[in-house]
Specification:
about 15% strand, 10 strands, single chain, eight-stranded parallel β-sheet, alpha/beta, two-stranded antiparallel sheet, binds flavin mononucleotide, TIM Barrel, about 325 residues, about 45% helix
């Protein structure tokens, strides 16, 4: 396939696995890149610059294809050493950086001086225009359906993909609710040059999350995710489970961040991912979980998506034939 995104990055298929805190590690990242997409490791997961360096080297041992490092620009209670991360990723020759959380303006100079291609996540048109104006190379859309942090404004991915695509000149990736080849074609039909996926890549063989979590995802339908933390201006789409229901109930009662913290803390999320207690804490999961029916290898998933995309194009062509 050829789009401006595949040309920009030098990859075969316009499918990116976005950064995923705790989930976006070397094995999954390399598997996506090896299969022709763009894999990502998440710097914030690594905790220190030296750990990030090790993880980058691990990816480089597994693939010599392009991959990305996600930099979190979200406000954080514990300071994130992004300057150190940037130094390391440039030093290690990482070609692509995905930024999210707030405008990447403050990091653009160092990333560009280091020769990086920057893809920034945007929950709305105004953010996309701003990102373009500060020199990012591509933007990815964060629609309402998205697993992880959507915007505050609840705009669906379909409309946002179209609106962002018609409002910026740089390549756009549709994001939020994409999980198969039909979605890929839909995003391209709306003007995007590819898609970014998260939730679907949690349930592949190379993802480190516990098998219980993957099986929960296979069994789940599209109703089994919910947005929590909107009352504290940090919306997070997560799996619908005992803890997320409790968080929502507390938010309705006006709970503060400090009161919610024992439930939304990352250590409980780790209990889910690594011990398989699916009700142990909140964990990011998009509505597209309703599409997940199996746990393929990354390569199988990607090849299937390309086949589906081709069938989808055929279907559309037939529909428009006289
Ligand atoms: C478990 C999980 C963790 C995520 N963590 C991050 C993150 O740390 N940084 C980030 O920019 N996006 C994060 N995301 C968002 C993804 O990179 C991607 O944009 C999103 O999942 C796309 O929507 P989808 O889940 O509907 O495919 C996360 C998503 C999931 C499912």
């Amino acid at each position: 396939m050829k789009t401006r995104f595949t040309e920009l990055i030098g990859i075969e298929y316009p499918i990116m696995c976005g950064g995923m805190f705790q989930v976006g590690r070397a094995e999954l990242c390399a598997a996506v890149s090896e299969a022709g997409g763009l894999g990502t490791i998440t710097s914030a997961t690594q905790g220190t610059a030296e750990n990030l360096r090790k993880e980058i080297r691990k990816v480089k041992e597994l693939t010599n294809k392009p991959f990305a490092v996600n930099l979190s620009l979200f406000p954080s209670a514990r300071p994130i050493p992004n300057d150190d991360y940037i130094e390391v990723l440039i030093d290690e020759g990482v070609k692509v950086v995905e930024t999210s959380g707030q405008s990447p303006e403050t990091v653009m100079k160092s990333l560009k001086d280091g020769g990086c291609i920057v893809i920034h996540k945007v929950p709305g048109v105004k953010y996309a225009k701003k990102a373009e104006s500060v020199g990012v190379d591509a933007v990815s859309v964060v629609g309402f359906e998205t697993g992880g942090h959507p915007g505050m404004e609840d705009i669906g991915s379909l409309l946002l993909t179209k609106l962002v695509s018609q409002n910026v000149k740089i390549p756009v990736l549709g994001g939020g609710g994409f999980g198969d080849g039909h979605g890929l074609v839909a995003a391209i039909a709306l003007g995007a040059e590819g898609i970014v996926m998260g939730t679907r890549f949690m349930a592949v063989k190379e993802s480190i999350v516990h098998d219980n979590v993957k099986q929960w995802m296979v069994n789940a339908d599209e109703y089994q995710s919910v947005i929590v933390q909107k009352s504290i201006s940090s919306p997070n789409r997560v799996a619908l489970n005992e803890v997320s229901k409790q968080v929502l109930a507390m938010e309705e009662q006006g709970a503060s961040f400090e009161e919610l913290l024992p439930l939304i803390t990352g250590s409980r999320t780790n209990q889910v991912y690594f011990e398989g207690d699916v009700n142990g804490g909140i964990w990011s999961c998009g509505q597209v979980v309703g599409l997940i029916e199996d746990i393929p290898s990354t390569k199988e998933l990607m090849m299937r998506m390309i086949k589906e995309a081709q069938q989808s194009c055929q279907f559309v062509n037939n529909a428009f034939a006289d």
